[in-house]
Amino acid sequence: MVVSTWVPSDQNLGFSTVRVLLSEAGTEESFRSKETIEVYDANDLVIKKAYEFLSMDPSALKAPIRLVSTGDYIEYKGSQYRGQIEIKPYNGKVLIINKVPLEEYLFSVVPSEVPASWPDEALKAQAVCARTYVVREMIAKAKQPYDVDTTTNTQVYRGKTKEHMNTTRAVEDTQGLILLYRGAPIQSFFHSNSGGVTEDPVNVWGSKLDYLVSVRSEYDKDAENFAWEEKISQGSMNQILSSLNLGEIQDVVVVNRFPSSRVNELEILGTRGTKKMKAVEFRKLMGASRLKSTRFGIRREEDGNFFLKGVGSGHGVGLSQWGSYAMAKENFDYKEILSFYYKDIEFARMMQNN
């Protein structure tokens, strides 16, 4: 049930348009459209028009320009983007930013994050999570040149090309709906698979949030990415951990774990010494494709190679996407799914002020 209408405490903030960093500009950039591309200067005067194709060197720009298509998209580096493209000098760089209406941004984010073939209620849950997440980022980044990028650092965004009618419907069915805790948008973290139990954010990023507590998520166990194994050669491990200056790696030992069974701390033993480090830092060195979560075990084999075995995928905080999928298959609706992973939250409809 929608229990309130949310209006930001800062009435000067607007949430109609998301600013998405696409890339840093090179010396030659090109843009395409099925219609005319109009180029506007900082005073909103049209300074150039190009039909279907525009090539330029943005590196010498001293002030921002905007590209606006008379069609429904601008293509950049093989992806089609709704809205406008801003090319903006900033701190010695030139940024290429997609300025896109919030709900249309979500048309791409939701199918970029989860398969469009998933049950409707799981798609709606992802839509509400994604909307809440970007609204909070827009508040935090209001004085920055952009709100989010296109990667898992924020939310995956692949433009109009990725849109699907199933996920578009999920966005439209939840239009403007966000999650609040004590009147403010929550940090609606999500991940792929919890491995059976979600994590407290204090154990990942050092900050505790009352609405994000560890919960048992048995729904994840039938997912295709629940369990995983990885073998790493001695040479690869030496290279991966070379920045530690420990020489040849002799062993990697789990020192202790959190109540969720995720590794807290490891000890790395090398020919030049030993070093203890947090599992989240170890995962950064290993890479998320190798060490899919910190709920794992590791041993050195007789041949000198390392064997890793674990469950789950991602940081483990907040909503488990595969858990959401399984809950939807068991006929939980999206509000029940979200209330399972985020505690004591309210559902609210955004009041668009500009």
Question: Could you characterize what this model shows?
Answer:
The protein is an alpha+beta fold and 354 residues long. The chain folds into three domains: 16-103, Immunoglobulin-like (Sandwich); 127-222 and 316-350, no CATH class; 227-311, no CATH class. It is 21% helix and 34% strand. A hairpin with a 2-residue loop joins β6 (74-76) and β7 (79-81). α1 (102-113) packs across α3 (165-173) and α2 packs across α7. The mean pLDDT is 93.
What descriptive keywords fit this protein?
single chain; 7 helices; 20 strands; globular; 354 residues; alpha+beta; 21% helix
Shape: globular
Spatial order of the strands in the main sheet? 2-9-8-5-3-4
**Count of individual helical segments:** 7
Order of helices and strands: EEEEEEEEEHHHEEEEHEEEHEEEHHE
Radius of gyration: 23 Å
Strands, count: 20
Sheet/helix structural class: alpha+beta
Uncertain stretches: none
Please give the share of residues in helix: 10-25%
Strand content: 25-35%
Mean pLDDT: 93
**Main beta sheet:** 6 strands, antiparallel
- Domain unit count: 3
Terminal-residue CA separation: 25 Å
